[in-house]
Structures are given as C-alpha cells and as structure tokens.
Specification:
The chain is an alpha/beta fold. It is 38% helix and 18% strand. It is built from 12 helices and 10 strands. It is globular.
Length: 324
C-alpha cells in the first residue's frame, strides 16, 4: 500500500520529483514533505551557470552540493539542471561572444559534469534554445550567435565528460504538437538521432495554465519517444488567477491528473517533476503577477485536490487508505 507520491510513481518504475532550493532546507515543514513525497530532486538554481562558475574558470559547488547531498542522504536521485542556457549566465559569460564564448561553454560543461561525474544520472544539457515567435526556429542568444552547431557541440562535450549520464534537451511550450516551437525541437531531435549526435531524452517543462493542458499531450510525448529518446516532465506547475476557488482547484486537480496519466501511458516517459513543493515559494507570482497557486501544496503546506489526483493517476488510489 503506497502512501506517498514518490512511492506511487515507483510502482511503475517512474519517479515523482521536485525542485529543491538550498535556502529552504532549514524549513522543517518544507523538508518533511520533500523527504517524504519525492524520489527525484532537481536543484532549483544551484547548478545553473551563474551559481557554479561565478568567475571564469573558478567553480563553486557549495550550494549545488548542499542540494545534492541532502537528496542522496534522503534516498533520492538527482537531475542535473542546467549546463548551457541563454539565461542566468554570470556577467563574465554575458560579455563574451564568438569562439571565446564557445570555449567557455565547453569548459563550463566539462567543469560541472566533471565534478558530478558518476553521481548525477541525467543532465539538462541545453535549456530553452528555441524561439517563442511562432517560427519554429532557434532563439537568438549569445550562444546561438557562436554558430548553429552550438547545441550539438554541447551534447558531444557532455557525452565525453560523463559517458554514463543521460543527456536531455529541456524546453517549455513544447507540450502541444501543433505549436511551431514543438516542431522545431522535434526536427532537431530527429536530426540528432539520424546523425548520431548524443541525445538520450527530452524534458517537457510543462509550466501550464489551469484548463489548458493540451488534449494531445500524450500523443506528443509518444511522437518524441518514437524518435528513440526518453521523455520526462521536468518543471510541472499549473497556474491560475488567484485567489483560487474550489472550482478552479478541482480543474487544476483534473489537469494534474491528465499530465501524469499522459506520462503513465507512454512507456518511455520516465517520470514527472513538479517545480517546487508549496505555493508559498513558487516562482510564478514573481513572473506572472496576479497568478499562482500552481503547485500541489498550498502556502500553508496543506495538500490541495491535486495531490489525490496525482496519486490516482499513478494508480494508487485503491491502495491509499488502509488504516487498521
């Protein structure tokens, strides 16, 4: 009889994960839920470029290791996030371009993956490299301007740095097959598989809006899996206009169930990570004022209807309440 989300996911060989912030590890309400309910951890910010290489060639893994060590001590695996990204670059990297930036990207991947070699099972190697402009093309960034092969170079570098790690491409707004951005990522992955560029998985961030889960999400995950990659839901939250009422919370619960069921129905979907634990600390209101309430626990750490819905989607509802 499974009584936590992580254990329910594990029944099908999947994981249920969350993003952990090192600064919240002193909050016992936070760590109690984190240690009990999840079997996979992503560092929310602590393994990103600015955190791990604040000065060029000077790496700092203190915050990343704090999250990593907490996870391992609590029996969890860790997703590495993220090695090459246009955002959250330290100032020194933002000021570079061309071949100098390209080499800095390679050195960064080698430095971070070298530190965690053999410890982290899966890395988001490249994050958010495609445009939202409806073209299906690449996002303009300092990394993109080093040459269109930058993503391929990042993956080849990562494979050499830790051959045992699974290498993922991670992005948002690729949940719906009809979107040009989805098509762009799909075409890249297909090309990489055809040419032998090392890519093992695609991460669907799934920062969704209540009532707007794509109807073809499962089919879309399957299309990517059919290219020969694993798929993962990496940063799930389902935001709404706040304050939320019972009707919206019920819709949100149904949406969470749809997303987890989509993963359960695709053999190569290996797990679901929600981007945080409690609405109290969610990133959503900072970026989308007036929105929030996007997670499974509310700001008072109470389980929302989404909790039971996720449990049901993982197939554990019938086992959930056996009190003797």
């Amino acid at each position: 009889a499974e009584s936590t989300l992580g254990a329910a996911a594990a029944q099908s060989g999947r994981y249920f994960g969350t993003a952990i912030a090192s600064g919240k590890l002193g909050d016992s309400a936070y760590t109690t839920i984190a240690s009990r309910e999840f079997n996979m951890v992503t560092a929310e910010n602590e393994m990103k470029i600015d955190a791990t290489e604040p000065q060029r060639g000077q790496f700092n893994f203190s915050a990343g290791d704090r999250v990593y060590n907490w996870a391992v001590q609590n029996g969890k695996q860790v997703r590495g996030h993220t090695l090459a990204w246009h955002s959250q670059q330290p100032g020194w990297m933002q000021s570079l371009s061309g071949s100098t930036l390209r080499q800095a990207m390679i050195d960064h991947i080698n430095g971070v993956m070298g530190h965690y070699k053999g410890k982290i099972a899966q890395w988001d190697v490249v994050n958010e490299a495609f445009s939202d402009d409806g073209s299906g093309g690449r996002r303009d960034s300092n990394l993109q301007r080093t040459g269109n092969d930058w993503i391929e170079v990042a993956f080849r570098t990562a494979r050499a740095a830790d051959p045992a790690a699974k290498l993922c491409y991670n992005d948002y707004n690729i949940e719906n097959w009809t979107w040009a951005k989805t098509q762009g990522v799909y075409n890249m992955v297909r090309d990489f598989k055809q040419r032998g560029v090392p890519i093992d998985c695609v991460g669907f961030q799934s920062h969704l809006i209540v009532g707007q889960v794509p109807g073809d999400f499962r089919q879309n995950l399957q299309r990517f899996a059919d290219l020969g990659v694993d798929v993962r839901i990496t940063e799930l939250d389902i935001r709404m206009r706040t304050p939320s009422d019972a009707t919206k919370l019920a819709t949100q619960a149904a949406d969470y169930k749809k997303v987890v069921q989509a993963c359960m129905q695709v053999t190569r979907c290996q797990g679901v990570t929600v981007w945080g634990i409690t609405d109290k600390y969610s990133w959503v209101p900072d970026v989308f004022p007036g929105e929030g309430a996007a997670l499974v626990w509310d700001a008072s750490y109470a389980k929302k209807p989404a909790y039971a819905a996720v449990m049901e989607a993982f197939g554990s509802r019938s086992h959930h309440h056996h009190h003797h």
